[in-house]
Amino acid sequence: MVGRPSNRDERYEQVMQALVHCVARFGIEGATLAAIAEEAGLSRPSIRHHLGNRDDILKSLQDYVLKAFRDQTDALASALPDDEPAMALIDILFSDAGGTDPELTLAFAALTARSADDIDLRTACRASISQFEARIAQAIKAEQPRADQSTCDQSAQGIAALYFNVMSLSPLAMSGTWKTNARENALKLLKNLKEPKCLNHAC
């Protein structure tokens, strides 16, 4: 039997959500202890107790955001049906609910910007993106078993790029057709795998 989460676990989640929100809105440099404390509704000493100094905050953000992406990617892949999993994946990614919290995507973007000066962070962010693309490619290959792997990988990269573009620009509140157009472009990448290539205009 799984026990209820402890107050410490709940408080940690409260602090981390406040940190992600502040980074999404103000960037890493703008996510000060004071801003995080105000967002979390806690005292500044309490935030320092949970997050530590500036380097500790960055490491906590990295661990939390990358784990959240990994867990959500795994959960998304596990929820896909056996029939047309790639189509289902695109429907989920480009639905109103989406596959990931937009603030997590913005926090991830902040981490990637910071990774230019941090090789370990860069490696971790690359691994996260690679895992996401691999899961998409896996769904495409399952739906289109005759497609070669490199083509599946290329389509997966395109779908991932469309998805991250939509999510990272969410603060702009683009028109409703923005996400619809991105979804249609993702479907075109999948459709290109389904349609046979014509040789010498014979078909």
Identify the notable features of this structure and list them briefly.
203 residues, mainly alpha, disordered C terminus
Mean pLDDT equals 88
**Major beta sheet summary:** none
Tell me, briefly, the overall form.
elongated
Total count of helical runs of at least 4 residues? 9
Strand content: under 5%
Q: Helix- and strand-based class?
A: mainly alpha
Show unreliable segments.
Answer: 199-203
The portion of residues assigned to helices is: over 70%
Work out the radius of gyration.
20 Å
Task: Explain the overall architecture.
This protein is an all-alpha fold. It has 9 helices and no strands. Helix 5 (85-93) crosses helix 7 (119-143).
Layout of secondary structure:
Blueprint: H1 7-30, H2 33-40, H3 44-51, H4 54-78, H5 85-93, H6 102-114, H7 119-143, H8 149-168, H9 176-194
Helix pairs in contact: 1-2, 1-4, 1-6, 2-3, 4-6, 4-7, 5-7, 5-9, 7-8, 8-9
Quick summary of this structure?
This protein has nine helices and no strands. The chain has 203 residues and is an all-alpha fold.
